[in-house]
Amino acid sequence: MELLEYLNGAVTPYHAVELAADCLKEAGFTEQKLEQPLKAERGKGYFIRVYGTGLIAYTVGKEFEGTDGLRIAAAHTDAPCLRVKPVAELLSGEYKRLDIEVYGGAILNTWFDRPLSLAGRIALKGEHPFTPRLRTVDVHRPILTVPNLAIHMNREVNKGVEYKPQRDLLPLLGMLQEGEVKESYVKELLAKELQVDKEEILDYDLTVYSAEQACFLGEREEFISGPRLDNQLSCYALLQAITGQTDNRGIHMIVLYDHEEIGSRSKQGADSALTAAVLKRIYAGLGVSEETLQEAMAAGVLLSVDGAHALHPNRQDSYDPVNRALINKGFALKINSSQRYAFDTETVAIAQDLCERAGILYQKVANHADLAGGSTLGPILSSWIPMRAIDLGVPMLAMHSARELAGRDDVVYLSRFLGEFFNGWA
């Protein structure tokens, strides 16, 4: 699957997981389920969907012996966005709007005046109350927008305005038509998209997303511009690596978590027992003791793969004078002494040596000392599975905007590095 095809299809975590599953199936991976035994064979690859918005994929080397090369790389499927509330219909005169809340740390003003669409998961009545039918939905066309207030009525807008989501960010869907039921126009839309009766719809989890396509940009098309680059670029690179050649002696795993942007505390988030429990079940299914698994974790390496901040050409004062990353000069090793990023000097050295042996460009980046910066799933995950760990990722601009910017070459460097990480040097 090509990069732009993946980016344009991964409009929600549900859709990202579906695309990942298709990619893994095509590469010969076998699907397993959390609610069934995790029996694996040496020399094969497997994947597990985690509650619709997360995914685990792993390979077992043909010569795997227990403590050999446990390597894990993790990313996240979610992005800051607008999420639809349970009762979505909100009229203003004849204007049909959606009632929303902000998910994650979004740059709010970037959501105005864009063509927006709607996607997510719908729960329909099933044969049994404990087994509703679950369907993904994507409207695929621009049906929403959040209109700005004209400058004539907001003269201070270019001096900075505080936006209130409940007032300012409600997307406009259309105009109420004669005979249209004002209490259920969202369910009517969803029923039409799914070709079901609206009475079948029990619940929905819907995301408002930018309907603009990702594209290559720049004089030489050296940039990638698009929504959700944080962190779908990492998810794409991890999928490319795990479906490529992996070492014959170890277990290699990628984990795509949800809810990183809101703290990771969920059943499919990094701040959960999920990964440790799955590892225990996989090793037990291979006839390996829990003591040996603990030894493998102590000897293994964990990567947290997430976007890094690239130096902004217009605001260089917001960055460290020397520990900073430029676009298309290599992926970034992210260092933070307060452990907002996972790292230790041994793991940094491992990543550097892999890059230098393979001729892969990399950079080291640390935040401006006066700015806290962001955090990642790396420190959280490494507290659940105590492995040597490092945070790294593609440098990008406009992180958490409705549309972000990254370097085309840096995705190649990251993918090559992940290939080296999974293939050899056990």
Largest sheet: 9 strands, mixed
How much is the average pLDDT? Answer: 94
CATH architecture of the largest domain: 3-Layer(aba) Sandwich
Share of residues in helices = 25-40%
Distance between the termini: 29 Å
Estimate what percentage of residues fall within beta strands.
25-35%
* Count of extended strands: 20
Runs in which pLDDT lies below 50 for 5 or more consecutive residues are none
Q: Which structural class do the helices and strands define?
A: alpha/beta
Using the coordinates above, name the CATH class of the largest domain.
Alpha Beta
What is the CATH third-level topology name of the largest domain?
Aminopeptidase
| Strand/helix succession | HHEEEEEEEEHEHEEEHEHHEEEHEHEEEH
Name the shape in a single word: globular
Write a brief caption for the model.
The chain is α/β, with parallel strands linked by helices and 426 residues long. The chain is built from ten helices and 20 strands.
Give an overview in words.
The structure is a single chain. This protein folds into two domains: 3-79 and 227-422, Zn peptidases (Aminopeptidase, 3-Layer(aba) Sandwich), CATH 3.40.630; 81-210, Roll (Aminopeptidase i, Domain 2). The chain has helices spanning 3-9, 13-26, 165-168, 185-194, 229-242, 274-285, 290-299, 345-358, 378-384, 408-422, and strands at residues 30-32, 45-50, 54-60, 70-76, 81-92, 95-103, 116-124, 133-138, 172-175, 201-210, 215-217, 223-226, 251-257, 301-305, 308-309, 331-335, 362-366, 388-393, 395-397, 404-407. The radius of gyration is 22 Å and the shape is globular. The mean pLDDT is 94. It is an alpha/beta fold.
